[in-house]
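Thread: 2-acetamido-2-deoxy-beta-D-glucopyranose complex, take 2
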Amino acid sequence: MPHFMALVYFLMPAIFLSMTLGMRVLTQFLLFLYCKCLWRGLKFVFRKVTGRCELQRICYNNKPGARRTLKIEYMPNDRNVIFFTLLHQLLQNALSVHPDAVEKTIDDIMALKKINPDTNPQLAISLQASLFQIVGYRNLVLEVEKLRREPYDCENPNHEEMLMKLWKTLRPDSVLTGRISKQWCEIGFQGSDPKTDFRGMGLLGLHNLLYFAEHDKAAALQVLHDSLQPKHRNMSKEEASMSKAEWEKQKFDKAIGYSFAIVGINITDLAYSLLASGALKTHLYNVAPEMPSLMHFQQTFCYLMQDFHRFWIEEDPCDIMEFNRVRNKFHKRILKQLKNPDMALCPHFTASDLHLVNL
Ligand SMILES: *[C@@H]1O[C@H](CO)[C@@H](O)[C@H](O)[C@H]1NC(C)=O
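Output below.
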């Protein structure tokens, strides 16, 4: 018996080694094979029963727009290696994706999945629309990023022209006395040269503000007008007994709306972070049936400006020092809304002329 125990102790490491190396590898391998076969089998049965593959099921069971495209984009890639390899190839050169490349990818997918395009004409169309949206979003992120990185340049006549246009649109009845002027504060810049205010967001801020002013002029003028108003407060007793001059002064001190242009640049920051994080996919996939473009991003900005304005009034902050708090709360609210796959952040002016995918 002691000899036997000694033998066991002696062989222990060897037994252990073979257990771990041999058996464990083998069991894991067998388990893997089993799971794989089981999955294949289930998929095969499912395909036979429904006559469809997973891509088809996604396309047929989800309405077009964010619901469908997000499902395709975030389909677990172990379930559809072929599809993901092709999609990856397509996206790798997203800067130069040609519609033909998307079409070719679709053809490849159909061929590899042995789906007959004649009996499934709708599938190719649906897949193509979703792929365009996925590719378009990527392109848009790159385009927006580029604008954001381009600093405002006083020497560039195009930049200067855009800035002047912004003034003329927002202050049609007022002549700017000079390129450097205190008048810029009237549209909510901080100092006499707007150049410095663009630092955070580069040309993207200017593009957005100008788009808002030009394409949604009435709303932009209204928001600007309101932002310049003193905050409406109920007069307290002491205030009522003050002299008119004192009251005016007091009112002016507390008369803090917000700076239109500065807030516009900051809301550009917010829109940018929604885009970069991917949160804006829900919205853009719902409003851009083909490819989300810069125009869609700018329209989103118009919506955010107006919605933020409403939110600011509702929140009724004491002064601009509360900007941070109100902005954070607003950001959270938008993020929550975008979790709903049917969400679209549409400014009123696009509702009629935008061909919405669904709503
Ligand atoms: C916008 O405001 C937030 C919060 O106050 C701040 O963190 C952010 O840097 C601002 N962005 C720009 C571009 O000014």
